[in-house]
Design a protein that fits this description.
Number of helices: 18
Strand content: 15-25%
Structural class: alpha+beta
Strand order of the largest sheet: 1-2-3-4-6-5
Oligomer: single chain
Largest sheet: 6 strands, antiparallel
Distance between the termini: 115 Å
Number of strands: 14
């Protein structure tokens, strides 16, 4: 046998030995363990880790207690199937008052853990909460010591992570005055649109019939600019969309119809029950260069910032803030002119992720409930919105009223006015077509006008608000008149002071009598309640008058009026603040 054959034989023997050893190790790993074998392996593993275990039986469970690096551990072995579980006992303790935070952190950790599970127990005697970590032990003949050490090391990591997260949430709860974060988050999710959109004080209406943003009917750049900045006719030159560090140029022909949600929302799943969407980024920026067709001589620039807000099960909320860069001062654009001032508007939008059929079925159910109550004559139990819906003649108009008022009450004025304007147009046509419209028809129309006027007021679009509120002025209702006067004052309208004085003179002569504006639906209310409503309206008028006088720099008249308001409980705080403001002005 030559040297070559000897080498080949040795290699063959080594491969056979290695293969045999691998097969044997696989055999040892896969061979099931009995109770005694499992106990012996764990005893040896604990000895290697310098632990001193104590064993005892608890019914059919063999329990091993031991300490490791200052932690109290327990291994429980089920005698029926010889499975083992490690328990890290009492690794954390919290007061009972913080149990809601404990529960929240436990859920958060368990969602992110693959094997270990954190549980808590309540100590009634000490009025505290104890935390424990559970982890299954897949022990075999080869890995007992290494597996046990790795599992305990992971338990220590989760102990540290739990403590850090608990301390952070405890500090947040003390700062925010919130202890039950799960309940708070559930309530917040349920009313997310109201909680977020109440922050908005200026939010223009969408142009045309666009009112909702979803994959099938997106809000386009043209619609957004028309609503936010009243830029209706423009010639786009270029549009660049920046998300993170990536910037994409949009083809010029597609700029006007660019769906702005594309920059921040993406589809994650196609499903029979409806597509799923999520935020693709926390923010995005659109930079537009364009020519205004009303002033085509100079190129304009505009920036739209999109920011992800939050989401519910139905809607992804994002904020759109558009700013038109002012033109430099020149003879045709003097300093302070409209084109020389920066123009910025913001709106909170909702990208609906629910199936449109679901929204339609929701309305259908609601509408049928209203009609059923009407057929039974059970109108006393209809809410104001249900009555408004019931008065709407056609189902299409009723649907617009339903969705519009729902968005209105959520504070989503940007989207509400689109639907309410459609309802207003339909009701207007219906009233024109009838020779003698019923009182309910007028009531429905007036309510829609009020919602529209109120919405436009909140959006800072006073000319549109004035149009609808002026329609309501002959109704002589306090709510309508209050909003009408607010519109004039906030718009710095020259008529505001004269109209306020007119109402003060008229109502001042009839205080305590039946004259003047009628209280809202208070015809059958006691005189005392009517007088209180009238007094409240008069206080409102004086506050508004003092505001106008200060704006007109008629400080002496304003001061005299404010001093007379100090004895009015509903206006005294306002008067004190305004008098202090006047004093500050006079000392300059």
């Amino acid at each position: 046998m030559d040297l070559y054959d000897i080498i080949i034989s040795l290699i063959t023997l080594l491969l056979a030995a290695y293969t045999g050893k691998s097969l044997y190790r696989s055999y040892l790993r896969e061979q099931p363990l009995g109770l005694d074998q499992l106990r012996l392996l764990l005893r040896r593993a604990l000895r290697k880790l310098s632990c001193k275990p104590s064993w005892r039986w608890d019914n059919r469970v063999l329990v091993c207690n031991y300490d490791y690096q200052g932690g109290h551990f327990s291994i429980r072995i089920n005698s029926e199937d010889a499975t083992a579980e490690m328990v890290f006992l009492f690794f954390f303790n919290a007061p009972m008052s913080a149990i809601d935070i404990v529960r929240q952190v436990v859920n958060l950790c368990n969602v992110n853990s693959h094997y270990s599970r954190i549980v808590y127990s309540v100590d009634d005697d000490k009025h505290s909460v104890d935390l424990h970590i559970l982890a299954p032990l897949a022990v075999n003949r080869l890995n007992a010591a290494s597996l046990l050490q790795a599992t305990m090391d992971e338990a220590f990591q989760w102990r540290n992570a739990f403590a850090q997260r608990y301390d952070s949430m405890l500090q947040d709860s003390r700062r925010d005055g919130v202890s039950d974060y799960e309940t708070e988050r559930a309530d917040f999710t349920h009313e997310i649109s109201l909680l977020h959109e109440q922050e908005m004080t200026h939010q223009p209406a969408m142009a045309g019939e666009q009112s909702r943003d979803d994959a099938n009917r997106p809000i386009t750049l043209r619609q957004l600019l028309s609503s936010l900045l009243q830029i209706g006719q423009f010639l786009p030159k270029s549009l660049h969309v920046t998300v993170g560090e990536s910037t994409v140029k949009v083809e010029t022909d597609d700029v006007s119809d660019y769906a702005i949600a594309k920059a921040i929302v993406r589809k994650t799943h196609d499903g029979e029950g409806g597509d799923e969407y999520e935020f693709a980024a926390d923010s995005a920026v659109l930079r537009l260069n364009y020519y205004d067709k009303r002033q085509p001589g100079r190129e304009r620039r505009l920036v739209v910032a999109l920011t992800a807000e939050n989401r519910t099960d139905e809607t992804l909320y994002y904020r759109a803030t558009a700013m038109e860069v002012p033109l430099s001062s020149r003879p045709d654009t003097p300093v302070g002119s409209p084109n020389n001032r920066p123009l910025c508007q913001s709106a909170l939008l909702g990208f609906d992720i629910v199936d449109p059929a679901k929204r339609h079925s929701e309305f259908t159910y609601y509408y049928k409930e209203v009609l059923d109550k009407l057929r039974k004559g059970d109108t006393d139990h209809l809410s104001d919105d249900q009555l408004l819906l019931a008065r709407s003649v056609s189902e299409h108009t009723a649907k617009n009223v339903y969705m519009g008022t729902r968005l209105f009450h959520d504070g989503r004025y940007l989207e509400a006015v689109g639907l309410l304007e459609q309802a207003d147009a339909s009701l207007n046509r219906q009233l024109h077509a009838r020779q003698q419209p019923k009182m309910d028809d007028w009531k429905s129309y007036n309510d829609v006008c009020f919602y529209l006027g109120f919405s436009y007021m909140e959006l800072g679009l006073f000319q549109q608000a004035y149009y609808y509120l002026d329609i309501l002025l002959p109704q002589r209702r306090y709510a309508y008149t209050t909003e009408y006067i607010n519109c004039l004052v906030n718009a710095n309208d020259l008529r505001a002071l004269d109209i306020i004085n007119h109402y003060l003179d008229e109502l001042g002569d009839t205080t305590g009598s039946s004259g003047g504006d009628e209280a809202d639906d208070d015809d059958d209310a006691p005189n005392k309640e009517a007088d209180a409503t009238l007094a409240s309206f008069l206080s409102f008028l004086r506050r508004r008058k003092s505001y106008v006088l200060i704006e007109c720099k008629r400080y002496d008249e304003a001061e005299k009026l404010l001093k007379s308001m100090l004895n009015d409980p509903s206006s005294s705080d306002y008067a004190i603040n305004e008098l202090a403001y006047l004093q500050k002005i006079k000392t300059k």
